[in-house]
């Protein structure tokens, strides 16, 4: 299913975004409750007994959220969410969870770029925020050399596996997001057909 | 290095490494061996790996990526993926 939302196809080369629905919850439950994802967003230390309990919780976090599906198999491999939307300031936070076994694969991050493009171009947001644990930043730290700008750091802010980690707040302004002027983004966000 | 060359390839692994080092936003070590681990030896994170995949597909000249979901661990894996992109294009 190549879903169009507000006229935009939410599709990359290898992933597609699809509105979160009840049928996705079993797969998302496995993803979010697996080691080591369970220690990170979006559960914040919570543990739900069943997928049915996870759904209402995710709904309270965001009304703008999509599961990430692998295009060839349709398998649910993650979730992207818009968090703490501020319509007055046109800002929103971004949450991403991916299947742990795919963290180093690179290609699933297409989903993040497709989502960012959608938020800027279709939803008209002015600025996006990413909250990243220090350990997450180790895995995707090069985003700061692409577009993201460090905004601030919450020191020893989140308890992760018995120790407190810093949380880095990174920002992305719409004026710094121009897929047409970035050859790799142009390649990624304009799939043929 | 020779064992990695595939008949019909237009770019050798040495040229491939040079191209990747030139095109990637990451600063790579001056000397790179094919068995270098992308994460541990070259310091590439998952965003870099996505960038590497796009650089490879662009180098292979295809607008449409092959129907593959690559798992790249070493630079040799990356070169192998490049060769498969070429084959896919020709095929």
Per DSSP E runs of 2 or more residues, the count of β-strands of chain A stands at 9
> Helical content of chain B, roughly?
40-55%
Low-confidence segments of chain B, ≥5 residues, pLDDT <50? 1-8
Helix content of chain A: 25-40%
Give the radius of gyration of chain A: 16 Å
Largest sheet: spatial strand order of chain A: 3-4-5-6-7-9-8
Average of per-residue pLDDT values of chain B: 83
Net shape of chain B: globular
The end-to-end distance of chain B, rounded to whole angstroms, is: 25 Å
The rounded Rg of chain B comes to 12 Å
Order of helices and strands of chain B: HHH
Work out the strand percent of chain A.
25-35%
Low-confidence stretches of chain A: none
First and last CA, distance of chain A: 14 Å
What portion of the residues of chain B fall into strands of 2 or more residues? under 5%
Structural class category of chain A: alpha+beta
Summarize the structure.
The complex is a heterodimer of chains A (193) and B (91). Chain A has 193 residues and is an alpha+beta fold. Chain A has helices spanning 25-33, 51-61, 110-121, 134-140, 143-146, 183-189; strands at residues 4-5, 8-9, 15-19, 64-70, 76-86, 91-98, 127-133, 149-160, 163-173.
Report on the architecture of this protein:
The complex is a heterodimer of chains A (193) and B (91). Chain A has helices at 25-33, 51-61, 110-121, 134-140, 143-146, 183-189, and strands at residues 4-5, 8-9, 15-19, 64-70, 76-86, 91-98, 127-133, 149-160, 163-173. With 193 residues, chain A is α+β, with helices and mostly antiparallel strands. Chain A is globular and about 45 Å long. Chain B has 91 residues and is an all-alpha fold. Helix content of chain B is 46%, strand content 0%. Chain B contains 3 helices and no strands. Chain B has helices at 13-23, 46-60, 75-90. Chain B is globular, with a radius of gyration of 12 Å. Chain A binds chain B through residues 13-14, 70, 72, 103-107, 109-110, 138-143, 145-146, 183-184, 187-188, 192, and chain B through 25-26, 39, 44-55, 57-58, 63-65, 67, 69-72.
